[in-house]
Specification:
Elements lengths: L10 H26 L28 H22 L6 H16 L15 H28 L12
């Protein structure tokens, strides 16, 4: 024998129980509407509120149709520029510069007969420019130090300097 009382009910009793449940739910909805100040036709189970994000906003932000159209137009313009460059049209400056650098790097890194890329060497001219720049910098630092020492008031001697 089963312990569940629902199994022992007749069809008429089950229908009456279902009707009672519906009445209870509608009365609960009316009570909720009265207490919250809403309408009596409040839904049976309220939908959960969207989760708040850390910055206090609720849910996703929506873009206006105008904003979406501006974004689409800008992206189409950028793609048109890329495709024009591929089709042999005028290349954008950045693409030209990048292509030049890539070609230069590929030429410099071209493997020799031994299979290795040649070691990059600094020219004498480049080395001289760097040395001149370093000397000029240190001369400027020394001049600033001398100027600061000449115009700064002399410090009093500390405890060790006193007699």
């Amino acid at each position: 024998m089963s312990t569940n009382p629902v199994n022992n009910l007749t069809a008429a009793q089950l229908r009456a129980a279902a009707d009672l449940r519906d009445q209870i739910e509608s009365l609960e909805a009316k009570l909720l509407a009265l207490l919250s100040g809403g309408s009596a036709a409040a839904p049976r189970a309220a939908a959960p509120a969207p989760a708040k994000k850390k910055d206090g906003r609720k849910g996703k932000r929506a873009l206006s149709p105008e904003a979406l159209e501006r974004i689409r137009a800008g992206q189409a313009k950028r793609w048109a520029k890329v495709h024009a460059a591929k089709d042999g049209g005028a290349e954008p400056k950045r693409a030209k510069k990048k292509a030049g650098r890539k070609a230069k790097a590929a030429k410099a890194a071209a493997p020799t007969a031994s299979g290795k890329a040649p070691k990059r060497k600094m020219t004498a001219e480049g080395r001289a420019r760097i040395q001149a720049a370093v000397k000029a910098r240190w001369a400027r630092v020394a001049a600033e130090k001398a100027a600061a020492a000449g115009s700064a008031p002399k410090k009093k001697a500390g405890k060790r300097g006193r007699k």
